[in-house]
UniProtKB/TrEMBL annotation:
Residues 35-55 are annotated as: Disordered. The keyword Aminoacyl-tRNA synthetase does not apply. Pfam families: AFG1_ATPase. The lineage of its organism: Eukaryota, Viridiplantae, Streptophyta, Embryophyta, Tracheophyta. It comes from the Eukaryota. Belongs to the AFG1 ATPase family. Keywords: ATP-binding, Coiled coil, Nucleotide-binding. The gene is LOC127765756. It comes from Oryza glaberrima. Transmembrane segments: none annotated. One of its GO terms (cellular component) is mitochondrion. Residues 76-117 form a coiled coil. This is AAA+ ATPase domain-containing protein. GO terms for molecular function: ATP binding; ATP hydrolysis activity.
Amino acid sequence: MIPRLHRAIARRSLLTSTALLPAVARHRDAPLPSAPGLPRLLHHAPGASDQARKSGPLTLYRDLVSQGKLQHDIYQENVATRLDNLLRRLEQYEMEMEDYHARLSMWENTREKQRRRLLVQEAEDKQRDGVWIDEKRGFLDKLVSRKRRGNIEPGVGKWVSYLNREKKLDTLVGQKPVAPIAPKGIYLYGNVGSGKTMLMDMFYGATEGLIKHRRRFHFHEAMLEIHDHMHDVWKRRDEDKSIESSAFSWISSLPFDGKIKEWLIGEEKYKQNTQQKHILLAVADKFLVDRQANKSGASILCFDEIQTIDVFAVVALSGILSRLLSTGTVLVSTSNKAPEDLNQDGMQREIFLDLLSKLDENCNKILVGTETDYRRLIPTDGLTQIHYFWPLTSDIRSMYEAMWHDITRQTGGNIISVTIPVMFGRYLEIPKSCNGVARFDFEYLCGRPVGAADYIAIARNYHTIFISDIPAMSMKIRDKARRFITLIDELYNHHCRLVCLAASSIDDLFQGTDEGPLFDLESFQFEGEAEGAKLRRDVLAEGNVGAAPSPTGLVAILSGQEEMFAFRRAISRLIEMQTSLYLERVERVHSSLQQQSSVLAKSSTVSQSAPSV
């Protein structure tokens, strides 16, 4: 084992370490702010080189097969063909949506001008008729007026006025422009390792430069962003209710007395409350279109791992996806389950059925692959895991430390401690940081109350992560194991290079003991993210990781489908992260690193001694 590991490192460590010189952190389309001293975030499509973006998914897939990097699969080729057809249709749809948004913008501007004109006319009538001048009215008039107001249900008057005004606007401005019919999206589902996310990402990369408004989300990231947007929407609503709000600035210059202006502000607030009644609709509108950006054009949402793990997920996904699909967004998504099987617990059934209806109407469902796990069929060429060091012996630890020294030396930076921002105003301390390379021990990342938001922040700010002293998972450390799987998910989704020092091999890492199941469905809910991803070792034809016999022990007695899926996904990802194909993808994602590497190689002033640990 150890001699083979030495040979693997000798052959590959120089290549993979020099390819990832000084860090430029992994982007997401809505990146977190960088911490002081950390490199600026890249804006680059996941897993797509400049050349690759010129080709469609089918060409990319066939190229990888012809190069021997993927094993041909008829299901995958069929999906690539369908995605290719969708891409071609989107070119026309983008132009249609640009024209539609131009007409819609003119209609909205005209309607708003007319709406304000109607409000001003009503205000003039009220001021001319002296509606607010109570001093001129007799006692009997006031009493009758009070009784009339008392017989009217609160809010009904404003609602009637609002509807009458909207009807007048329909007559004055005409009906809203009709949007073009959106092409049907694609909902991919299938087993671990079937290539769902790989194909989705090929499609996503090919849309760069073609579609203006495009996002790629993973389930964890989407849920966190929904929470964040909800907070922003509530905060903005509170600000908009203030009389000093910019939404009411046009009223301040009008030649009316205070009572009339108060009435105008009340009408504006009522319109806002009516249009913003459902917070998820407002959140959905922020998902794809930056308020500062040009809103014209088509929109694409690539959603990796649709799932309904709890009531909030059911309600949030239904509200967000229904709104986006209703406004013409094209959805390409992955899941380990068919849509009708997502909510087997029956949570919020009516809401879920509405979501199913929207998905059926707007997406074609495609099963990717079969139950076959291609990972076990991968041939071996004698190479072993080059970034996964085990067991925890002094010799292996020395090799792990040598790789840390080698990679940090070549970055040309100093090892420092920094703090990076996390969502919701939190911050996370990084004990050892060096130009996009970070180092942790297992307990620091998984033995404390941290979660997906922290791991996403790490993955966005660092391209290479070192984690030491990873134990074999057992029932005693179930919570730590759950966090570790979530960590692996995010590092994988953000195309980070992972270097591990662990107590056991990858296939034995989640075997546990006879103390009971490592996972149970209820406790695993909050991070039951499924599959995920791009060129899984299941579909790799390149044999640089040795196949192992099927795991036994604890795995054999696990009965829940979700927890079985969780550790199978983690094992699959950890092994794929050692392959050259994955590392090549890391280099493409961090495209500027190679340019920086060549600059460093030509510079005689950059070399320095190995930094201290």
